[in-house]
Amino acid sequence: MAALKTLLTFILAGAFIGLAAASWAGPHFLEWYNTAPLGTQTVCDLPKVVQGVTSSLLRYQLIGTLSGAGVFFILGILFVVARSKKQKQEQQPPATPPQASTTA
After folding, report:
1. C-alpha distance from residue 93 to each of 47, 81, 100 (Å)
2. 93 within some domain
3. CA 15, CA 20: separation in Å to the nearest integer?
4. Residue 59 structural domain
5. Confidence band for 70, pLDDT divided at 50, 70 and 90
6. Per-residue burial over 28-61, b = 16 or more CB atoms within 10 Å of its CB, e = otherwise
7. Could you read off the pLDDT of 25-38 as tens digits, one per residue?
8. Residue 101, helix vs strand vs coil
9. Alpha helices in the chain (DSSP H)
């Protein structure tokens, strides 16, 4: 159960980090992507543009959330495996070498 809690914590942390990264980088990317090249002017249907940009931002946030959750899920698995190996090594008593007999 502790391993599941740890994995869930890693997944949620990764999801939040991915969402934050997408929320930070998404608007900058969308501004660059939707800017007319070389300063030319365009005539457009503004409500349609706003709808498209908003849906793109939400899509990028979802992608960021899922990729962050996936990466941190893998990191969580590695963390749990490493911790369980370390705990198993600590639980095993050290093997004592056999006593040498001193017969001459």
Report:
1. 70, 20, 21
2. no
3. 9
4. 1-28+55-87
5. very high
6. eebeeeeeeeeeeeeeeeeeeeeeebeeebeebb
7. 878 877 777 777 76
8. coil
9. 2-33, 46-91
